[in-house]
Amino acid sequence: MSPRRSALRTRLTALGYGIFYRLPHKFRLRLVRLATPKYTIGAVILILDVGSDPDGPVQRILLLRQPPGRGWTLPAGLLDRGETPLQGAVREAAEETGIEFRPEQLVPATPNAVVHTNGRWVDTVFTARVDADRVKLSVDGAEVWEAAWHPLDELPKLTVATGRLLSHYGISPTDHTHGSAERRPGHG
């Protein structure tokens, strides 16, 4: 790009911002909302079975079979208006699995948010470490058909979205190594 065009572009950009910031706030906000991408926000919970030792290694993960039944998924759902991601995660866990968590029992995963730019949604991800023998699972038969614990090295067929999400945390049906304990969800 030539220096002359660069200077012209800079002046036009400055002029555009000058006009934009003179507009009433409500109008500027509407313009921004029209021009920027919209994302749907959801909460996902990786519910991990660690047996009776809360600091022990992850043994299994809780997965759900939901309509249309093309693969297993994670407990998750869209946030309600005005709801925080943590509140949504607590609510979704209760609705889909019957497990009633207190907010302090859920830990933000690393990464805590996964942005799906093609589908324009953001998953906020939390982990919960439980003793599977001490929790009672309850599904409604409509939104969720089945909830079951699966060993990390023997995962069933997952939905594409679930497989992609789990890969961010070193969990994959084709990768049986799952990384070190520090890379596992809920360990760091």
Automatic annotation (TrEMBL):
Chain positions covered by the region annotation Disordered: 169-188
Gene3D superfamilies: Nucleoside Triphosphate Pyrophosphohydrolase
Database matches in SUPFAM superfamilies: Nudix
Domain (Nudix hydrolase): residue spans on this chain: 38-172
Keywords carried by this UniProt record: Hydrolase
Domain of life: Bacteria
Residue intervals passing through the bilayer: none
Compositional bias segments (type: Basic and acidic residues): 175-188
Listed GO MF terms: hydrolase activity
Family matches, as Pfam families: NUDIX (PF00293)
Entry similarity comment: Belongs to the Nudix hydrolase family.
Protein's name according to its UniProt entry: NUDIX hydrolase
Species name: Hamadaea flava
Classification of source organism: Bacteria, Bacillati, Actinomycetota, Actinomycetes, Micromonosporales
